[in-house]
Design brief:
Elements (H helix, E strand, L loop, with lengths): L1 E14 L2 E14 L3 E5 L6 H8 L7 E6 L2 E2 L5 H10 L1 E5 L10 H11 L8 H11 L15 H13 L5 E5 L7 H16 L3 E6 L2 H4 L4 E6 L2 E7 L9
Parallel strand pairs: 3-8, 3-9, 6-7, 7-8
Antiparallel strand pairs: 1-2, 1-4, 4-5, 9-10
Helix pairs in contact: 3-4, 3-5, 4-5, 5-6
């Protein structure tokens, strides 16, 4: 089953009198249950692609289908519903609310999810925190957690609405190598459960933990290949 279909996606920005082609005809299919890494240097277009996939921005032209729905025909409210119900986001900077416990941070998406009523959001949040190995840290605030623990809270927050896709933008960018391995192991376990994961990174050794890599340069896909010798981490 195809989760994502992009056809000839283009996106241009106008900066300081110059026209920059951020995406220059991207066509891409992502099947359900894939673990895809998008790699490229700064300015390659990978973050712009992530924003379009996450319905945070829209392409100038081309077609984007998400689970059969044509995304680029939707209004802002419909796009917000997709972000809340189908996509979980994990960012490099964690984006956790300070002076708010891990449990409260994870519950937030359930409060704003208009499409799916959760009878017991606290229980659901505890469940996903346990899934990411933080059942003993639910009452800790971000400044009481390590960088890796904060990223696990962010991953739990992404998971709490049962999304079909996790979009992770440089999720290991602020982490040391050992903690990076822990987070990538967690992504691999989640992918083994059938969750589609798209990870943006500029590091090839991080990308090689995925099953497939898209290499972007100057807004175009220059390589699209399967990982034959995948780096699979074991606990």
């Amino acid at each position: 089953m195809k989760t994502i279909q992009l056809s000839n996606i283009k996106k241009t920005f106008h900066l300081g009198g110059e026209t920059v082609k951020a995406l220059d005809g991207i066509s891409l299919t992502v099947n359900t249950g894939e673990f895809l890494a998008v790699i490229g240097t700064s300015g390659s277009g990978k973050s712009t692609l992530m924003n379009i996939l996450g319905c945070l921005d829209q392409a100038d032209s081309g077609e984007y289908y998400l689970e059969g729905v044509k995304v680029n025909q939707l209004n802002m409210n419909a796009l917000a519903d997709i972000r809340n119900q189908k996509i979980g986001f994990v960012f490099q900077g964690f984006n956790l609310l300070p002076r708010t416990t891990a449990l409260e941070n994870v519950q937030l998406p359930l409060i704003y999810n208009r499409g799916k009523k959760i009878n017991n959001p606290t229980q659901k949040a505890k469940k996903v925190l346990d899934m990411v190995g933080l059942s003993n840290r639910i009452n800790h605030e971000p400044n009481q957690l390590s960088g890796g623990q904060q990223q696990r809270v962010a991953i739990a927050r992404a998971l709490v609405t049962d999304p079909s896709i996790i979009l992770a933008d440089e999720p290991s960018g602020n982490l040391d190598s050992r903690t990076t391995d822990e987070i990538l192991f967690l992504f691999q376990k989640l992918n083994d459960k059938g969750i589609t994961i798209i990870l943006v990174t500029h590091e090839l050794d991080v990308a090689e933990h995925a099953k497939r890599v898209i290499d972007i340069k100057d807004g175009r896909i220059r390589r699209d290949y399967e990982i034959s010798h995948r780096r699979y981490i074991t606990a």
